[in-house]
Design brief:
His_PPase_superfam, glycoprotein, 14 helices, alpha+beta, globular, His_Pase_clade-2, disordered N terminus, about 375 residues, Acid_Pase_AS, disulfide bond, seven-stranded mixed β-sheet
């Protein structure tokens, strides 16, 4: 538990922005796009390759399998759904009904078991069945099925970091630059981790994040981290943070990663602004830390701490309309860890004076990152029927 607390402290500092209170005044919320990271999971194959406790980990995770959602992760996902119900449901800003209504919500997940299960658990918390939707006297009184969309990983813009040729080209350049620049400070660390893991971290600095994720998975499963790593944890945590930042090193990487969702938000908000009917005004993406990071980058959010998004974290773009003037404004919020933290107000670069940024201003400061979905496929050289 002691080392878990250290890891938690390394992963995210207290955010200096104030906790969310009554934002609305004369404003009503008219749309929200929410991107969450899945709950706690078992180690993936890359992480296991760095572990000196492979057998123990495999024994502990034989039910979930590699990179599967754990019971802790399921509880975390349920907390995501509770947060959404409290904030966006009838008891919150009223964007969602207590009943599941298909015209109100669109749910998308990457085609990974941990994100699909996270989506299902979140929906179970969001929509405990009202009487009209209870379908039998047993399970039907406590569980409401909610559909979601998932497309093949090879064609999914949410998985840009694995399927986009152009992004991978840019990552190679980013890694080489970083090896010769910010990762020079970890030369002594490279020698130790190579001895303990058999891998040369100089050749691939992303391994630092892989190793740190392994430790987080181990701790969540009740295993301590290796003795050799304990005194190195602060340095390993900093190296992991820098490795994560490589995914957003260049503007083109940011655009590939978050431009599609941003473009969809702008288009839907523009339709609302012009009075066109817009269905599914709550859109949720059950995804990964890189998706949260890319959205924060393309929306030019100001963050006072630079830790990597934790399991169960959530970022949202909320659209409000003034009841008096009809003006549309955009607000960014961040939930560091569902069930353990309070959602925080953020600000956009260029809109520092208020958490409410006028929609026109928001369009101006983000215009360089817009990426229609069809353009994503062209840039990434992906053939798709989608």
């Amino acid at each position: 538990m002691f080392w878990y607390l250290i890891i938690a402290m390394l992963q995210f500092d207290l955010m200096s922005s104030s906790a969310i209170t009554d934002l609305t005044g004369d404003r009503e919320m008219v749309m929200a796009f929410v991107i969450n990271r899945h709950g706690e999971r078992t180690p993936d194959a890359d992480e296991l390759s760095l572990s000196d406790q492979k057998e123990k980990l495999m024994n502990l995770t034989y039910i979930e399998g590699v990179e599967g959602l754990t019971n802790t992760g399921k509880r975390r996902a349920f907390q995501i759904g509770k947060f959404i119900r409290q904030r966006y449901g009838v008891q919150g800003y009223g964007l969602l009904s207590d009943l599941y209504l298909q015209d109100e919500i669109a749910l998308r997940s990457t085609d990974k078991e941990r994100t699909k299960m996270t989506a299902q658990m979140a929906m179970a918390a969001l929509y405990p069945p009202e009487v009209d939707q209870q379908w039998d006297e047993g399970l039907g009184r406590i569980w409401q099925p909610v559909p979601y969309t998932a497309v093949p990983l090879s064609e999914d813009y949410l998985r840009y970091y694995s399927n986009c040729e152009r992004f991978n080209e840019l990552m190679k350049i980013a890694k080489q630059e970083a090896i010769n620049q910010e990762f020079q400070q970890f030369k002594d660390l490279v020698t130790i981790v190579k001895k303990e893991t058999g891998r040369n971290f100089t050749e691939d600095p992303l391994l630092y994040e892989t190793l740190f994720d392994l430790f987080k998975s181990q701790v969540s499963l009740g295993l301590d981290i290796p003795e050799w790593a304990k005194p190195l944890l602060p340095k390993l945590g900093e190296a992991a943070r820098l490795a994560y930042r490589l995914y957003f090193r260049y503007d083109e990487m940011k655009k590939i990663g978050g431009g599609v969702i941003l473009n969809d938000f702008i288009e839907a908000a523009s339709d609302i602004s012009s009075g066109k009917p817009v269905k599914k005004r709550f859109r949720m993406f059950s995804a990964h830390d890189f998706n949260i990071g890319s959205m924060m980058e393309v929306t030019r959010v100001i963050r006072h701490e630079q830790s990597n998004p934790e399991y169960g974290s959530l970022f949202a773009l909320e659209l409000y309309r003034s009841k008096g003037s009809g003006e549309l404004t955009v607000v960014p919020i961040y939930l560091p860890r569902a069930g353990e933290s309070t959602a925080q107000l953020l600000h956009f670069t260029g809109c520092e004076s208020s958490c409410h940024c006028s929609f026109d201003k928001f369009k101006e400061i983000t215009k360089d990152f817009l990426l229609p979905e069809k353009d994503f496929y062209n840039i990434c050289n992906i053939r798709t029927e989608l």
